[in-house]
Amino acid sequence: MEKGMNLTLIVWRQKDAKSKGSFATYAARAVNPDMSFLEMLDVVNDDLIQRGEEPIAFDSDCREGICGSCSCVINGVPHGGQKATTACQLHMRMFKDGDTITIEPWRASAFPIVKDLVVDRSAFDRIIQAGGFVSVRTGGAPDGNAILVPKEDCDLAMDAAQCIGCGACVAACKNASAMLFVSAKVSHLGLLPQGQPERDRRVLNMVAQMDAEGFGSCTVTGSCEAVCPKEITLDNISRMNGDYAVAMVKGK
Amino acid sequence: MNNLFHSTLGKKYIMALTGAGLFGFVVMHMLGNLQVFLGQEAINRYAHFLQSSKELLWSARIGLLVMVGLHVWSAVKLSAENKAARPVGYLNNPTPAAASYASRTMLMSGLIIAAFIVYHLLHFTVKVEAVNLVGLDFGKLHEQDLTGRLRADVYRMIILGFKVPVVSVFYMIAVGLLCLHLSHGISAMFQSLGLRNKAWWPVLQQSAKGAALVLFLGYIAVPVAVLLGLLKE
Amino acid sequence: MKLDSKIPSGPLGQKWDKHKFDLKLVSPANKRKFEVIVVGSGLAGSSAAATLAELGYSVKSFCYQDSPRRAHSIAAQGGINGAKNYQNDGDSVQRLFYDTIKGGDFRAREANVHRLAQTSVSIIDQCVAQGVPFAREYGGLLDNRSFGGAQVSRTFYARGQTGQQLLLGAYSALSRQIGLGTVKMYPRTEMLDLVVVDGHAKGIVVRDLVTGEVSSHAADAVVLATGGYGPVFYLSTNAIGCNVTATFRAFKKGAAFANPCYTQIHPTCIPVSGDHQSKLTLMSESLRNDGRVWVPKRKEDCSKSPSSIPDADRDYILERKYPSFGNLAPRDIASRAAKEACDEGRGVGPSGYGVYLDFAEAINRLGASKIRERYNNLFDMYERITGENAYQQPMRIYPAVHYTMGGLWVDYNLMSNLPGLFVLGEANFSDHGANRLGASALMQGLADGYFILPYTIGHYFASSKQARPKVDHAEFRKVEEEVSARTQRILAIKGKKAPRSFHRELGKLMWENCGMARSKQSLEANLKLIPELREEFWKNVNVTGEGSDLNQTLERAGRVADFLEFGELLSLDALTREESCGGHFRVEHQEEGECKRDDANFAHVAAWEFQGEGKAPLRHTEPLVYEEVHMSTRSYK
C-alpha cells in the first residue's frame, strides 16, 4: 500500500553545455512529506536508474543549507521560496498531493549549464580571486586582540559573511545580477579594520571582474534579498555602491 | 574615472545623478504649473520671468537635455547588458520574487515618458499647431502685462490645450507613468549612490511613494480643473 | 613496515621549537621548482595550498565540489579552541594539551597533541587577520565560550557558523594565490588513485567529473586533506560527497591506515524519518545546556503524546545515570545512553529510534523568550526539518556518526609511511586519539595546513633527492589504465540496483554491527556480510550513462565500491581492538556501562598495511609512550 503524495515534476533536462535542453515530465509517487526536496529527487532518480534511464543531475553536498551547492529553481523561485531556506532544507510538506512542480537550473549567461540542473558557478570564484581577501601571509599576524573591533561592526560583517555563494540572488534577479553576492563580500571585509588597507582596490577589482563575467546590473527590485537563504540584505549593495564611488573619485 | 562610463556601477551613478536632477526639475515644473490657480497674471508673469534671460534659459534647457540624454543612454545600455545576462528565462515567466511592478517596468515607463516629453515639448514649448488639436497657433497667444508690454499668454494656452480631452488624458497617463517611475526611482537612486542604511530605508521607500503621489496629484490638478471647468479663459 | 613516529627528543614543551630548527630548509630560489599536489579544499587543504604557494612552491589543488569553498569543513557549527586564556580563567597550552589527551581517552600521540595546543594560539591570530568575524564583546575584544564540557572558555566562534567562516578565510587566502597564478585549482575533479614511483608518492590520477577525462598529475609531493570516512555508515552528518576513496586508494598503494575503528557519534541529531533519508542533521550540542533528555519508563507509553506522560513515568536517563554531569555528559556517553534506551524498546517517534530533548522545564524557568534568544535558529531548523514546534513539544533526537578519528598513519612531520605522501586534517589519525573534543577539529585542520606542513614538507624536499617523474612515466600510464578499467568495469555491470541502495545496506550493517556498541559477534558478522554485499555490488549494481560526461551515479558507485572494502577494514580493526576506549565501545569490555580500557595490551596505534586483493591486511603497532601525562580513567559519574 503506497502512502504519501503523488506529484508531477516538470524538469529541465540537458545533456551537456553544448546540447539543447528541453523539459521532461516525471511522476513522483508516494512522496513522504518528511522528505527534503532533494531526497524526493533522490528517490525519483533511483526509480529512473532502476528503469535504466539517466537520472536527473543536480548539485548538492552538505544537505544542511550551508555549503551552497544546491541550485534549483522550483516553481519559478530559486530554492523554492520558503524563507531563509535552501532547496536541500525545503521539505515536501510544503507541497500538496497532486501538485505539479517545475524544476529548472539557475538561468544566467554567467552560469552556463553543465548538465540538467547543474550549472557552472566558477564566475563567483573568479570574482573572489580578483579581490575578495585580505592579503595577509600565513604567520606574522598580530595578536587577535591587538585590534579592537566594535561589536556592532563585527555583527554587521558577520551578517554579510554568512553568504554561502549559492547564486540564488543571480538566479532570482531579472537582470541576473551578482550584486548581492559581490556586495556581501565587499561589505564583510570593508566593515572590519583588517579589510581597510585594500578597501578601494578590492571593490574596484571585484566589480570589474563581476562585469567581465557578464552579470547584469542592479535595478533594486529586491528579488535577490527575498530569495537569499542567508537573508543577506540590500544594505550591502548600497554599501558597495558607496565604496565604489569613493574609490572611483579617489582615482584609484 | 573611466569606470564611470564603463562599469555597471558607474552607469548606475549616471542614472541616479541625472535622475536626481530630473526629479528636481519635475518638482519645480509642478510648482510652476500650479501657479495657474493663482490666475492669469501670476502664471504669465512667472512664464515671462523664466523666458526673460536667454542665457539662463538655454543653459537650463541644455542641462536638462544632457541629463535626459545620459539618463536614457545609461538605461538603454544597462538594459541591453541585463538582457544579455539572462538570455533564457524561466518557464511561464514567473514574476521575480518581491519585485514591485514599478521596479520591473522602469525601462518601459521611462521610454513612454520620453515619447511623451517629445510631444509635450512640441505641444507647449515649440508650439507646433498640428499637435495641439485645437486648430490654433499657440505661438500667437499674447497678452499685455501691467505696463502694457506684450508677453506670451501661457494661461490661455494651458486652458485651451487641456480642453482637448484626448490631450488631457494622454497627459494624465504620462504623468501617471512618470510617478510610477519615480515611486521606484527615487528610492533606488539613494541605493545606487550608496546612501541607504537599515534605519532609513523604510522611510525612504515610503517617502518616495509619497513624493510620487504628491507629484501625480499636483500635475493632474491642472488638466482636471480645466476639464471640470474650474479654470476658465 | 617500520612505523617511525620521528618524535623529536627533548622536553615535551620544547619538541616543536627544537624540531623546527632541526628541519632543513629549501632556499627561496629553489622553492618554485618543487610542485605540490593538494587534494581536498577544506580547512586543512585550503590552508596548506595557500601557505605553500605563499612560500613559493608551485601548487595544484583538487576538489570534487564545484568550488573549493564548499568543502564540508563549512558545516562545523560550534567553534575553534585556542589556548589564549583571554578570559583569565586558567587556560594554558598545557591545559588544552591535557584536555585533548584525556578527551581522546589516552590513545593519541603526546607530542602531536602538545604541538597542536601550542599552534592553536597562532591560528586565532591568523584567522582574525584574514577578516574572520569571530564574535566580539562590546569593548571590541574577542569573545569566548565554553564548549563540549570544557571547564575553561577557550572556544572562539562566529555565531553557529564557525566552520564556514574559517573555511571562507582559508578559501580567500587560497583564492588570492589562485589569482596570483601560484596555485592552479582543479574543481569538480576527483582523485581516483595515487601514483608511487620508486617508493615515493609522486602524483595522482584524477577524473574530470564534467568531461569524464582521466588524467595524471605528477609532483614532488602529494598532500591528502580529503576528510574522514563517516559516510561508510551511509547516514552521517557528513556531506553526500564525503568519501574514503583518496585515503583508501593510498592505503592500497602502501600507506598504512591507522585506527579506523575510532569513530565519533554525536548525540544531538534529528532522528531518521524514513528510508529516503540521505543524511542526518546535527543540532548544536549547546541544546543540552537547557534541554533534558528523557524516555518513557514503560514501553507502552512510547506512542503516547509526550505531554500526557506524567513526570513520574519519565526516565531522565542522563540525570539518573550521571548525576554530576547530567544532561551535559560527553558525546559518546550521552549517545550510548540513548541507544540503550531505544534498544530496550523505550525509544520514541515513528521509528522508535529517538529520545526526547525537553525544554518545557527551561521554558517555565526562564520564559520562552529567553529560550528563543538562545536557540531560535536551532528551533527553526528543527521545525523546517521535522515540521514540529519544539516550543510546544519536546524535540526528538538520536545519535549519528559525526567525525572519524582514524585515518592514514602519519609521523610527527605529517608524512605517511610512504615518503612524499603527507596527510592532513581529519584524513590523518594523529591528534584526537579515540575521541575528539568539541571545537578541536577546526583547530587541527588549520594547524596542519597553516603551521605544520609548510615546515615539514620543506625538510622532505631538502633531504630527499627524488626527481619528479614526468606524467608519461610507465607507472602513471599503468595507474591511469587501472582507473579507466575499473570505471569501465562498473559501467559494464548494468545490474538491477542503484549504487545508493548498496550504500544504504552497507550503512545498515556498519551502524548495527559496528556502530555505538560493538561485540565480537556483531563484528564477525560484518566480516562475513560485507564481502557478500561487495560481491553482489560487483554483479548487480546499475550505473546508467557513460563515463564521458557528468555522471553522478558513476561517482557514487566508485565511492561506494571503496566503502564496501573499507567497511571490512574498519570492522576488522574494531574486532582486533579488544578494549573499549573513546568512540570505540566493545560490549565485552565495560565497567558499569563505561569504557574499560586495556592499557597493558592496547596502548598503541594500530596501523594496517594492505597485502593485496583478497588477502587480510597486516596489523602493525606504534606504542604510545606518555612522558608527561599519567593515564587515568575517564569518569563523568
What does this structure look like?
The complex is a heterotrimer of chains A (252), B (233) and C (637). Helices cover 34% and strands 13% of the residues of chain A. Chain A contains 8 helices and 7 strands; from the N terminus they run E-E-H-E-E-E-E-E-H-H-H-H-H-H-H. Chain A has helices at 37-50, 122-131, 151-161, 168-172, 179-190, 199-212, 223-227, 235-249; strands spanning 5-13, 22-31, 73-74, 77-78, 100-104, 113-115, 118-119. In chain A, helix 5 (179-190) runs antiparallel to helix 6. Chain A is elongated and about 60 Å long. With 233 residues, chain B is mostly helical. Chain B has a single domain, classed as Up-down Bundle (3 helical TM bundles of succinate and fumarate reductases). In chain B, strands 1-2 form a two-stranded antiparallel sheet. Chains A and C meet through helix 1, helix 2 and helix 3 of A and helix 3, helix 5, helix 6, helix 11 and helix 12 of C.
What percent of residues of chain B are in strands?
A: under 5%
> Span from first to last CA of chain B?
53 Å
Strand proportion of chain C: 15-25%
The mean pLDDT of chain B is 95
Output the strand order for the largest sheet of chain B.
1-2
Helix content of chain B: over 70%
Name some characteristics of this structure.
heterotrimer; A: 252 residues; alpha+beta; Ubiquitin-like (UB roll); Fumarate Reductase Iron-sulfur Protein, Chain B, domain 2; two-stranded antiparallel sheet; B: 233 residues; mainly alpha; 3 helical TM bundles of succinate and fumarate reductases; 2 strands; 73% helix; elongated
